[in-house]
Amino acid sequence: MPSLFEPIEMGSIYAKNRVFMSPMTRAKATPEHVPTPIMVEYYTQRATAGLIISEATGISREGLGCPYAPGLWTQEQVEAWKPVTAAVHAKGGKIVAQLWHMGRVMHSSVTGMQPVSSSATKAPEPLHTYNGKQDPEVARPLTKEDIARIVNDYGNAARNALEAGFDGVQIHAANGYLIDQFLRDSANHRSDDYGGSPENRIRILREVTEAVIAAIGADKTSVRLSPNGDSQGCIDSHPEQVFIPAAKLLNDLKIAFLELRELGPDGTFGKSDQPKLHGPIRKVFTKPLVLNQDYTREEAIETVATGVADAIAFGRPFIANPDLVHRLEDNLPLNKDNIQTWYSRGPEGYIDYPFAR
Ligand SMILES: Cc1cc2nc3c(=O)[nH]c(=O)nc-3n(C[C@H](O)[C@H](O)[C@H](O)COP(=O)(O)O)c2cc1C
Predict the structure, then answer these.
(1) Ligand 1 centroid to residue 193 C-alpha, Å
(2) pLDDT at 170
(3) Domain 8-341 has CATH 3.20.20.70
(4) What is the reported pLDDT for 357?
């Protein structure tokens, strides 16, 4: 029986345990999207995770509309990530960069450009900008030339991630951002090669994954999907018809691991009655599978021990417990995260959560 606290090899990435830190935007970079020294401290505190998946990180100016989120498209950004990855490695940790294009979930006041997506749709909710919340704008549907450019941007950002010292990358294909806006039929109304059939809606995921693999190798490439439920207006009428073939494709491309964020009927970070798909996905994706959302210590131990998944990614528990692995191993009480400081500026609620010892 594998244990949550045992190591696992995923492609070229050796994780010393199966308690992973899920990707979490914390908005501590500069307005130019350059990482800052406080991020070194934050990630270093959490280096006992088997693997840290970084906060979502922009692949390009046009793809990043989140105030104070970091990027990986300029040399300055690459240089500013180096102390983060070096400090995590010095503590014996591993870290991959989550690569992000936000698609329609952006406002022109942040990017200077009309948002883009698979189709001319809008994000469902007002968007964070440097001037408070603003109403979403109708996205410009991407042309095939645009798609080719964006695919190339993912490859460049992956190369930059390795130059910055990351152990690999995670392609963010979840949570209603650009790739998810192609995958799911509520957002994708195209009638060309990138819309309609599941195969067509998966096409951009395939092209992006192939470009990242060409840039850094499949053994350093991973993907995050959120197959069930509604994420920022992205929902599929038949999720199994698109996400099972997508997982099969990723298996054939031999990526290092696949992470699924799945919503349960009582989820505390979004909920859904659409069934979780990790069972059928496990059958077609035979490499390491990582599951996320709302896992308790007991569920995580059981899920790994019974072979339902190979590792569990924790989000909010890692915000509030830098030493989460130790606390889970010794069954110690957990600190509760404070939602008010998720995206605030400064050290409070970021690097001041107490360690158990
Ligand atoms: C503050 C915050 C920021 C987040 N940012 C991201 C992100 O950048 N990329 C991503 O894929 N998910 C993001 N998520 C989702 C988390 O990775 C995770 O899926 C969610 O917190 C559920 O897991 P949990 O129940 O263990 O907290 C974020 C969640 C929180 C609370």
Answers:
(1) 31
(2) 99
(3) yes
(4) 80
Query: Which candidate in 42, 68, 154, 177 is catalytic?
Result: 177
Q: What is the pLDDT of residues 272-286, one digit of tens each?
A: 999 999 999 999 999
Q: What residues have CB less than 8 Å from 128, skipping those under 6 apart?
A: 66, 67, 343
Pairing of strands 289-292, 13-15: unpaired
Whether the Cβ atoms of residue 121 and residue 141 lie closer than 8 Å to each other? no
State which residues of the chain have pLDDT below 50: none
Burial of 298 (0-12, 13-18, 19+ CB in 10 A): exposed
Ligand 1 neighbours (beta carbon < 6 A): 22-25, 55-56, 98, 172, 174-175, 224, 261, 269, 292-294, 314-317, 342
| 177 in active site | yes
- CA distances to 68, 83, 101, 130, 287 from 211, rounded to whole Å, are 27, 27, 15, 32, 20
The ligand 1 atom at the shortest distance from the C-alpha of residue 268 is 25
**To test ligand 1's pocket by mutation, which of 53, 316, 336, 341 has the most ligand atoms within 8 angstroms of CB?**
316
Q: Are strands 140-141 and 132-134 parallel, antiparallel or unpaired?
A: unpaired
Q: So where are the chain's domains?
A: 8-341
| Closest residue by Cα to residue 92 from 52, 36, 38, 35 | 52
Residue type, 178: L
Q: Which residue has a Cα nearest atom 14 of ligand 1?
A: 24
Q: Which atom of ligand 1 is nearest to the CA of 175?
A: 11
Pocket test for ligand 1, best of 25, 101, 303, 353 (most atoms within 8 A of CB): 25
Residue 79 DSSP one-character state: H
**What DSSP state is assigned to residue 179?**
H
The answer to whether 6 touches 18, Cβ cutoff 8 Å, is yes
Give the pLDDT of residue 1. 85
Overall residue count recorded for the chain in this entry: 357
For atom 5 of ligand 1, the residue with the nearest CA is 24
What integer pLDDT is reported at residue 308 of this predicted model?
98
In the prediction, which pLDDT does 292 show? 98
| Cα distance between residue 283 and residue 247, in whole Å | 9
Instruction: Take atom 3 of ligand 1 and give the residue whose Cα is closest.
Output: 24
Q: Answer whether 67's CB lies under 8 Å from 29's CB.
A: no
